[in-house]
């Protein structure tokens, strides 16, 4: 059986061939205690519906700036729904509504009338479960957002391509083939290309919806290492089914069950000393 302490050991259970020594990070110790983070996103009394069906119930959550927060919980508990509420991706689904409460980013209600959802999504980028590079060159994939914004300065575009690919830990692997198709990359490289595309427009927040679920253990380890590096510059919220991944990558973890937030605390507490018996049962593999 998976135990909480197993999850917090240095050797990743699902990455046996990625040597722990090659990984530049460990499970967070007390980083959040040492250096208190500011709140970037505040979710208050938030109720969300798909048509008549309520999917989220009275969610209250403060997400830290420049930290990694993991959303965990059994299938259908509302993790992805809440993630998509943070950049209003759910607006694209007919019949969705926020019936009560709201989400503020730096104090601004993102569902306010004067907030443009396209602008919001530039600030709050998203990386999906399945990598989705466009059928274009690696270079064009990275600068896609800037092209849409009308940027034509070649020197600027070149600079963004290099910076974003370096930021996504992909530059060395692709610098000699920037004008080849992004579809020719491996699955793990494609996912990092999508991360490069996301960071090219300089978002503040990166939402990741099970970004490693289609990747092999080596590619997963690279993306996890990347997540650790990216939080120096970005606030990251990751939905994951892998408790090992949550334990390895995140500073704080929120556990959801049936549309409700059950417990939110620093990741070490959630895995080693959860306050709620449902959290304990879930992280120790007894349900879900
Ligand atoms: N487009 C949709 N239309 C109607 N109901 C939806 C839609 N998307 C999700 N739901 C419902 O909302 C609830 C929460 O789903 P959600 O996908 O957010 O859960 P999840 O925790 O991310 O699940 P999983 O881990 O399986 O991805 C579920 O009951 C689901 O059936």
UniProtKB/TrEMBL annotation:
Keywords: ATP-binding, Cell inner membrane, Cell membrane, Membrane, Nucleotide-binding, Phosphate transport, Translocase, Transport. InterPro entries: AAA+_ATPase, ABC_transporter-like_ATP-bd, ABC_transporter-like_CS, P-loop_NTPase, PstB-like. SMART domains: AAA. Residues 41-283 form the ABC transporter domain. Pfam families: ABC_tran. The keyword Nuclease does not apply. One of its GO terms (molecular function) is ATP hydrolysis activity. One of its GO terms (biological process) is phosphate ion transmembrane transport. One of its GO terms (cellular component) is membrane. PANTHER family: ABC TRANSPORTER I FAMILY MEMBER 17 (PTHR43423), IRON EXPORT ATP-BINDING PROTEIN FETA-RELATED (PTHR43423:SF12). This is Phosphate ABC transporter ATP-binding protein.
């Amino acid at each position: 059986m998976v135990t909480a302490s197993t999850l917090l050991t240095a050797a990743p259970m699902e990455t046996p061939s990625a040597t722990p020594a090659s990984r530049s990070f460990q499970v967070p110790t007390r980083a959040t205690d040492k250096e208190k983070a500011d709140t970037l996103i505040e979710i208050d009394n938030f109720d969300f519906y798909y048509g008549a069906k309520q999917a989220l119930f009275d969610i209250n959550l403060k997400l830290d700036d420049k930290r990694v927060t993991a959303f965990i919980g059994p299938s259908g508990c509302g993790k992805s729904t809440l993630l998509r509420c943070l950049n209003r991706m759910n607006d694209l689904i007919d019949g969705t509504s926020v019936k009560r409460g709201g989400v503020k980013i730096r104090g601004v209600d993102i569902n306010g009338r004067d907030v443009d959802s396209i602008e919001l999504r530039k600030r709050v980028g998203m990386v999906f479960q399945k990598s989705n590079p466009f059928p274009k060159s690696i270079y064009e994939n990275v600068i896609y957002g800037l092209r849409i914004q009308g940027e034509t300065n070649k020197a600027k575009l070149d600079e963004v391509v290099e910076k974003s690919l370096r930021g996504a830990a992909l530059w060395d692997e692709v610098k000699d083939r920037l004008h080849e198709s992004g579809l020719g990359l491996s699955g793990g490289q494609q996912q990092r290309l999508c991360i490069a595309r996301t960071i090219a427009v300089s978002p503040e927040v990166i939402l990741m919806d099970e970004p490693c679920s289609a990747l092999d253990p080596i590619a997963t380890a690279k993306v996890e290492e990347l997540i650790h590096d990216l939080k120096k510059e970005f606030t990251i919220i990751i939905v994951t089914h892998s408790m090992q991944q949550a334990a390895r990558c995140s500073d704080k973890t929120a556990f959801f069950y049936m549309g409700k937030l059950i417990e939110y605390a620093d990741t070490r507490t959630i895995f080693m000393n959860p306050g709620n018996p449902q959290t304990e049962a879930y992280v120790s593999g007894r349900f879900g």
